[in-house]
Amino acid sequence: MRNTRRGLLRRRRPELDAATVASAPVPLVVPDLDIAPNDPLLPVFQEASGPVDISALDLDSPALEQMREAGVMLVVPLVASGELIGLLNLGPRLSERGYSSDDRQLLGRLAGYAAPAMRVGQLVREQQSQARTRERIDQELKVAQLIQQQFLPKAVPDLPSWHVAAFYRPARTIGGDFYDFITLPDGRVMIVVGDVTDKGVPAALVMASTHALLRSNAVRLLAPGQLLATVNDLLCDDIPAHMFVTCLVLVLDPATGNVVFANAGHNLPYLRTSDGVIELRATGMPLGLMPGMKYDENTAVLQPGECLLLHSDGLAEAHNSDREMFGFPRLADIVSQPRSGEQLIDACMAELADFTAADAEQEDDITLVTLERLASAVYADAVPSDAGPAGSDLPTASVTSASADECLLGQFAVASVAGNERVALEQVADAVRDQGLSHDQLERLKTAVAEATMNAIEHGNANRAELDVDIKVFRLADAVAVTITDDGGAPSVDPPMADPDLDKKLAGEQTPRGWGLFLIKHMVDAMDVSTDGAKHTVRLTIHVESTPIPLGKEAGDDEQV
Amino acid sequence: MNTPVVSMDVRHVGGGVAVVDITGDVTATCEQPLMAAYEEASTGGTNRLVLNFTGLEYMNSTGIGMLVTLLVRANRQKQQLSAYGLTEHYRQIFELTRLDEAISIFDDESSALGHAGAS
């Protein structure tokens, strides 16, 4: 039943006779009329084949009563597609004669035209309002997405002998998942995964403040249990009543494999050990429910070859079309297979795709973080990607960190300002001083690093001073490698360019410039380029002929020129 | 890092020969000084230019590009370019880019001037 049962015409129709119209018509005023859905008048109008004479009706109807009081004589029901959408109410004729059959016919035809036109008008209005609502929802989703992405880490930590991978896929409605990596002052790494109840902008805002509270307190508190207790108390003051945050905090000592963790109601992480898959258990209430909570702190040790999976609800609690849940046992089973972090993430998502229908909409955000202690034999895909861009179709960045047999000699960043390549060059020279490079090799490396850094500043980061170029220097068994990373990770950048040719340049067939890449290639033994969608990395390698100096610098460091 | 860290001093040594003493970095920032030095060196019917790289601290690909530009201009004026004072590393780069085929390389000023005067 439509709710618009109102008097549509509040003045009686003027007679076509001009003389009559001129004789001061008295306007007929019908008050807004609400007809109850059970009023016996409705079926009469609904089924009438033309105008209805009010005086001829004998019904127990409050609406009829009201109409008579208002002076309505004749009602023309407006019916479109079998539905009563309005009434045309007429008072007495000005000529004080009754309505003729001609009048009734005319009014009947009028209603026949007017009703569908009105219906179209109503539909257009409804659609416009629906479109406005959709637009507003889309806008909100965009805002939520922006907030969320703002707080997700741009890269995973780069830890020798460890391999960290992360995966995040938002649901269309954007839940409140988040994860973070925080390097602590003592060299340990804090890994955080969390999930805010609720969705959309409110969840994104709570996520943002939780993220900020965790970050700002982590460095001071170091202990995960204490951190959760503090953030819980701070969050309780501000969080909306119906919302809370589940959160797992885990601190890894990369040197020993020791982890300390505490859990505020988040899914238990799975650890693949040589004895099977175990859960890392620690109890605690979700954040933001009530102040003064205590959080258990437990420890575990990750041995070489073991892999830890942190995961949010979106995976284990996904449903298929029969409303079955993906479930934790299924997930534990995937973890039990020997796989690298990325392979594990791929396997989880592949199983999920098999489980739900191909076109099923993802119910909740999915966040997966893997932490893998590399065995001496590393997985093929865990070796730093010198095979070029990874062929991964993952919608999010999963960044590869250094492999086991590399030793980080130095790591620094320069702002993307022209000229800073000289800073980079000096720092790299400093980092490789004791690595047995010949004078010539050192000069070549410096030139290559400077050129690659220039490219990163100018092209990758478009001279935006707020962006850093990250530089790392590694010692390998028989080589020194330098990686130069910028933010230009989009589908890559290096068009197949002809080698510069001096004759062509002198003849004006090539620009005088364009020597950079050519120089780099000829300065080092290998130049590899990789990209992960966000970051673009150039890796330069120079083989070192002389015996590598053992790790840990020798005392006299000025014997090498 | 944005102020030019290079100086280019021009010496007219007679016989249509001018020496440009380059001190510092040959990079994007030295485009103006280099072209100004070229103008100055080209006055008075100079037909041979000698670039003195003894004071060179750093040269990058942009700097090499500018040398190519200089070479194009010198070729157009039928002027010869030579250079001396390059370190082994930058000699290699000159060879790699084949700049050494268009710019004669010498060990020191006297051999560069000897050549410049003789031919």
Shape of chain A: elongated
CATH topology of chain B: Transcription Regulator spoIIAA
Mean pLDDT, all residues of chain A: 80
Helix segment tally of chain A:
13
Domain count of chain A: the total is 3
CA radius of gyration of chain A is: 37 Å
How many independent structural domains of chain B?
Answer: 1
Number of strands of chain B: 5
Secondary-structure class of chain B = alpha/beta
- The CATH architecture name of the largest domain in chain A reads 4-Layer Sandwich
Low-confidence stretches of chain B: none
Low-confidence segments of chain A: 1-24, 377-404, 491-496, 548-561
Largest sheet of chain B: 5 strands, mixed
Topology:
The complex is a heterodimer of chains A (561) and B (119).
Chain A: H1 18-22, H2 41-47, E1 52-53, H3 62-69, E2 74-80, E3 83-90, H4 101-151, E4 162-169, E5 176-183, E6 189-196, H5 200-221, H6 224-238, E7 245-252, E8 258-264, E9 270-273, E10 276-279, E11 298-301, E12 307-311, H7 313-316, H8 328-336, H9 341-355, E13 366-373, E14 407-415, H10 421-431, H11 439-460, E15 468-476, E16 479-486, H12 502-506, H13 516-523, E17 526-531, E18 536-543
Antiparallel strand pairs in A: 1-2, 2-3, 4-13, 5-6, 6-7, 7-8, 8-11, 9-10, 9-12, 12-13, 14-15, 15-16, 16-18, 17-18
Chain B: E1 6-14, E2 17-26, H1 31-42, E3 48-59, H2 61-76, E4 80-84, H3 88-96, H4 99-102, E5 104-106, H5 109-118
Parallel strand pairs in B: 2-3, 3-4, 4-5
Antiparallel strand pairs in B: 1-2
Write up what this structure looks like.
The complex is a heterodimer of chains A (561) and B (119). Chain A is an alpha+beta fold and 561 residues long. Helix content of chain A is 32%, strand content 22%. Chain A has three domains: 107 residues, GAF domain (Beta-Lactamase), CATH 3.30.450; 229 residues, Phosphatase 2c, domain 1, CATH 3.60.40; 137 residues, Heat Shock Protein 90 (2-Layer Sandwich), CATH 3.30.565. Chain A has a five-stranded antiparallel beta sheet. In chain A, strands 5-6-7-8-11 form a five-stranded antiparallel beta sheet, covered by helices on one side. Chain B has a single domain, classed as 2-Layer Sandwich (Transcription Regulator spoIIAA), CATH 3.30.750. The longest helix of chain B has 16 residues. The mean pLDDT of chain B is 88. The chains are: A alpha+beta (561), B alpha/beta (119). Chains A and B meet through helix 10, helix 11, helix 12 and helix 13 of A and helix 2, helix 3 and helix 4 of B.
